[in-house]
Amino acid sequence: MPPAPPAPYQAPHLAPAGEGGYVPGYQVNPNPPGSGKRRGLKIFGIAVASLVGVVAIIYFAGVFVFMGRFFPHTSILDMDISGMTPDEVHEMLDGVLGDYTFKVEGHGLDLTLAAKDMGMTLDSQAIADNLLSQMDPWAWPYEVFQNHDDTQDLVSTFEETALADTIQAAVDAVNSKGQAPKNASLAFDDAAQAFKIEPEEEGNTLLADVVLDQVTKGTVNFAPKVKLTDAVLAKPSVTEDDPALAAAREQANTYMDGALTLTMAGKEVLAIDKEAIAEQVKVADDLTVSFDATPLVSMVQEKVNAMDTVGATRTYTRPDGKKFTVKGGDYGWITDSQATAEKVKEALEAGEGGTIEIVMKQNAATAPDEHGRDFGSRYIDVDLKKQHATLFDEDGKVLWESDIVSGLPKDGRDTPEGTYYIKTNDGKSVLRGYKPDGTKDYETEVEYWMPFKDNSIGFHDAGWQAKFGGKWYKEHGSHGCVNLPPDKAKELHEVLEVGDVVVVHK
């Protein structure tokens, strides 16, 4: 495209300039370009500054006001405290405390309390000041449009003893009619002959300390009612699924294996069964298991002591059918109760029962029957009334017999009654007797000496006796021994055994 032609020349326009002559027209233009825009900005700035100033005045005025008063829409205990000062709130709260009552309900407890009943106090001035201090007056433009319920910050204090005593009395009244909970425990099962777990049992008694805690927390903010929760109920502290209880059961049952029987000559005379052992198994509150064998051991020792038969009364029937009762003598069982008790204690504590033969210091032939007889069929029967002695064998048959002369029935020379046993059977011996003053009374040599009471009373040959049997002994009796014809003494010596039982009776 061809270039545009140059503009035509125009001469400068001259305007009058007064007395000074003329000046160019552009130098005297009254509305220079942009002057209106600047003026508008200035006016706007002044307006904004004025507005900010007003807002600042209003804001700081609000800050000043709410430094000493509560925000609008503020309440406590459903009472409006909007715009109040702390002093005004303080006076209001003092009035509230005097009228405050509350109810405690639940789990059988129905109690109405007043502030005075619980020694309730309220530092209302401190509370009011504290509530105000929690407000942020610098945020008042936002906070004045919010709702403020400060009830949760209203904290009272209690005279603990007064309230605790009141609660304890109320709880005691409820508990007196209630059922306390029962912990799961161990019990001996007779059918199973072992310990088993008895389940826990729930109760409905209350825990005073928990009730007190819930009342304190529930009324500290002036709540009108405290509804007790299940937490106030006393609960079993041990339940049936407690592993410690299961372990206790296992340990307790180990002692059941200690059941044992005691025998005398193979015959059962005493038993300690599982039930007796179970009575001595104790489970502590911490579920530790202990076993005290002492009562059982003492019982065994006492009963074993009573099983001694030396000197006891025995009733027996002779092979010819006649019945006799005799007492005394040195034959019979002598138990070692101490040694037996030690064996029993060891078995019980180890849980290793079974059969324990009673330890003896002296044995008899058999365990005593219901009549006290503890000697066998083989024995020598000395009948003082009939003045006759008979040796019966193991089958009850007569092995030897003879008329006798027993002790003179006066001056203490009677042949002693009782159950004895032959001490020796050595043959020849010299017998000596002494008077009460210690001087020798007699000295006699015999061919056959078979003592049964110590070494002082026994069977022996007595060739000096003119006759045997009948009533001869009443005038010609011995010093206590059983006199025999020499031939009969020889026969007895040949069949008699050391240890053979001798029963002397009338």
From TrEMBL:
<feature type="active site" description="Proton donor/acceptor">
    <location>
        <position position="460"/>
    </location>
</feature>
<dbReference type="InterPro" id="IPR038063">
    <property type="entry name" value="Transpep_catalytic_dom"/>
</dbReference>
<keyword id="KW-0961">Cell wall biogenesis/degradation</keyword>
<dbReference type="GO" id="GO:0071972">
    <property type="term" value="F:peptidoglycan L,D-transpeptidase activity"/>
</dbReference>
<feature type="transmembrane region" description="Helical">
    <location>
        <begin position="43"/>
        <end position="67"/>
    </location>
</feature>
<dbReference type="InterPro" id="IPR038054">
    <property type="entry name" value="LD_TPept-like_central_sf"/>
</dbReference>
<dbReference type="InterPro" id="IPR050979">
    <property type="entry name" value="LD-transpeptidase"/>
</dbReference>
<keyword id="KW-0573">Peptidoglycan synthesis</keyword>
<keyword id="KW-0133">Cell shape</keyword>
<keyword id="KW-0808">Transferase</keyword>
<keyword id="KW-0812">Transmembrane</keyword>
<dbReference type="Pfam" id="PF12229">
    <property type="entry name" value="PG_binding_4"/>
</dbReference>
<feature type="active site" description="Nucleophile">
    <location>
        <position position="481"/>
    </location>
</feature>
<dbReference type="InterPro" id="IPR005490">
    <property type="entry name" value="LD_TPept_cat_dom"/>
</dbReference>
<feature type="domain" description="L,D-TPase catalytic">
    <location>
        <begin position="378"/>
        <end position="505"/>
    </location>
</feature>
<keyword id="KW-0472">Membrane</keyword>
<dbReference type="InterPro" id="IPR022029">
    <property type="entry name" value="YoaR-like_PG-bd"/>
</dbReference>
<dbReference type="GO" id="GO:0005576">
    <property type="term" value="C:extracellular region"/>
</dbReference>
<dbReference type="Pfam" id="PF03734">
    <property type="entry name" value="YkuD"/>
</dbReference>
<protein>
    <recommendedName>
        <fullName>L,D-TPase catalytic domain-containing protein</fullName>
    </recommendedName>
</protein>
<keyword id="KW-1133">Transmembrane helix</keyword>
<dbReference type="GO" id="GO:0008360">
    <property type="term" value="P:regulation of cell shape"/>
</dbReference>
<dbReference type="GO" id="GO:0016740">
    <property type="term" value="F:transferase activity"/>
</dbReference>
<comment type="pathway">
    <text>Cell wall biogenesis; peptidoglycan biosynthesis.</text>
</comment>
<dbReference type="GO" id="GO:0071555">
    <property type="term" value="P:cell wall organization"/>
</dbReference>
<dbReference type="GO" id="GO:0018104">
    <property type="term" value="P:peptidoglycan-protein cross-linking"/>
</dbReference>
